[in-house]
């Protein structure tokens, strides 16, 4: 069968997975579909309330018997069906399996009076890299369509153990190595706030799904911004934990086995409280007993408490940079960072300028790593069906390069290690000079607010954090405003790429686009960075339960 | 200059680094030189007592002002000088620098009444992979002679911060990839208990030095047994911590940058108490702030306490295997394991047979990894001086193989990860079947007691633990006895290699050779495994302060 026919069949199967009563009749819609669930009449008031709630609240209500998992799962399935029809964000949708699971959980609760785990009954949305038994994993590759899984990814097993319900797997860009979401199976996923903006990538389906509240906690992966960029573009919180904190075993991936820079799993959520529910629930399953790469490090409450004590005493010390010296962010992003800084300062905390240490070098180094097999693995997956390569990933993955050899790889490892250790030295030197511990660094995650399609050009703000294996939490800050965020006239570009990125800014086109920052800490500081992100969100007034 | 002349010059510089008054006149010595320090007249009674003491005791006495670092350092320098002359175990000896440092520490203590850190004044012996400012690092490569270091390895810096004194760097085999110690710079290092036995390798110089008590804590490295084998062959305790527990940054190495299986640092000691002093002292320096590969995991006292509670309630659960199914250990080793098991059983603990899971596969896989650059890096170092390759490392590193390519490496990574995770599954299944937590596995570390020269053939008992990245502590058990450990008649070999190893056994030649086991636990379980090793040593009566 021609690849077009395979893709077409898959697309129609996705469409058919949506029950008739959840289908949208007319697609004469506004660019912004964020209000559609409320006006559609497909969700009841209770279902709207459920999908507008928090995960923390929902699991508490299910654990008290006030809500059933069937009710909660039905609500999210309906809303996910809308999300799919409005943003084209799913590769798999399986409400029947989900409702069967929800019913089993409800029966368990009814008969025992007990929950099976801390996520009992909660629907969780998964990026289409997660293997779920009986469900396909195509990851947007035409050649992989028809891969029905015989076993679960480890994180899937542990989430089931914790009581989660799965109902959807969301779209990704071909190859995963792109921060927008487009593939030859279902095409492009768009941003629910404006169909002309990207939902981000590679966990872009998650971004659109959770952004639209078709999901409450979505699980993505990040090797160069793939959790954080969709979080930023959809006004969500998102964490890139350090490698080894959460299990990745038995996931599908491109460039599988590449270990110089590890892809990691992490949640996209509407609040840090929900993120914490996810993290603590997974860690409570002792993932290090299942996946050898997971460090035996349970949730460190004392680390969170240390930050809370600093918050209480106005004692946070936060470094910041607005530009990495390579590509200057657009005006909304610069204002976003400023907003966070002035908010922190007003709250009595200490901020200081952080000098990005050799970020250009780091950005080049990680690009070398991404291309270390010369794109062989990705092109094998693409070519085996005959589908064409999407144009976007030329920006990140340059397949024209030859494979590097073993000793070149080892030299690259040494460069990475030296860079990481030098960065730690920058922390130590700054701490000596400040006379206090640095708690985090606030900086852009992308140079743009939610970007227009095919305009994502610069990964450095995100990818340097991956190279360092630092913990990073994205915090939604505000929305671009054409009246405030005016274009810089006579901007002198730092480089050709910087000029291209800066030229893309258009106050009208970006009006209303989500603006975010990332809060970055040293390796394996999830508890601390999440607590700081939560406080920043609270100070900004974005620590909200409903954001529709 | 011809490589022979460079080596000769280096050798004579090492000889000249020993002050005349510490030189041995006659070298008509017994095979066993363990009593030489006592009979030589070079060390005073106090110096003999110091070198026969424990590190824990020495740092306590220096911290109370009862002993000076100069006295302690002088004693160990003298005894190290003897060790060098008797076993040929050092590549660098610098007593003058050591005594200058000791004096500075004494002056600091005198003027402030305070120690600089938990190792204040304690001499620590280093394998010649550690970089120490102003000192050469040759690692036994002729081509590297003359490399005077401009900066310290991170662990060296942190040990200095903790108060340590350095005085010697010990010998290694050419390439490091051998479990005996021989190179073209100084030749062969021998075992102080019998010059016909190997001191082990690659941290063999440490084994001989600490075994002879020319050092009290020696620091080695281990990528395939290199800490554990010399510990076993010299009746010492030795730990291979999991990767990421101790810093390795800025160490010299062969195959530098190879990250599929990491070499790790760890101490060789006479007791677990001294090992714990080392581990806690290094972790107290927060090594994760200096070396990006170190996990921010301080000493976990609660983990040690959990084991102590089990010991108190006779509640340990210990798996064991005597053979890995590939190479059957010699009779003394089998008896060694049996001795540990019966001792544990008598003490009321639970033992159960552990089935080695695919160790043959693992052994082949790690050999592929060692050879992944086809020996390119090692041969570059060897060939650049013109020195010949030592014959031994043909057993481990087969340089005739071509480099593997990037996608083959990634496939190897996946095999490693799958194997590690399957091994964890074996633990989980066994725990379900036993109905209790497994605390450790006791097994051989080598198939032989301290081996005769050039007869070390099988690395599998050690190297599978490296592939798994498990924590392993070697515990000295007893000595081979020609009257008990008789040769097995009519042994049917499992394989050609097994036949070669078994044929090597000779009760008379091995009479008196040290016999050890390793105590193995899951990744990053140092606190637990050390506590179990300590208890086994105590039960065996080997938890002693002087073992000469």
Report the mean per-residue pLDDT of chain A as an integer.
96
Major sheet of chain A: size, sense and barrel closure?
11 strands, mixed
CATH superfamily of chain A: Amidase signature (AS) domain
Helix/strand structural class of chain A: alpha/beta
Low-confidence stretches of chain A: none
Please identify, by name, the CATH architecture of chain A: Alpha-Beta Complex
Oligomer: homodimer
Number of helices of chain A: 18
- Briefly note the CATH topology name of chain A: Amidase signature (AS) enzymes
Shape of chain A: globular
Whole-number tally of structural domains of chain A: 1
Terminal Cα span of chain A: 42 Å
Estimate the helix proportion of chain A, in percent: 25-40%
The CATH C-level name of chain A is Alpha Beta
How large is the radius of gyration of chain A?
22 Å
Q: In which order are the strands of the major sheet of chain A placed?
A: 1-3-2-8-10-9-14-15-13-11-12
**Beta-strand residue fraction of chain A:** 5-15%
Largest interface: pair, residues per side: A-B, 48 and 48 residues
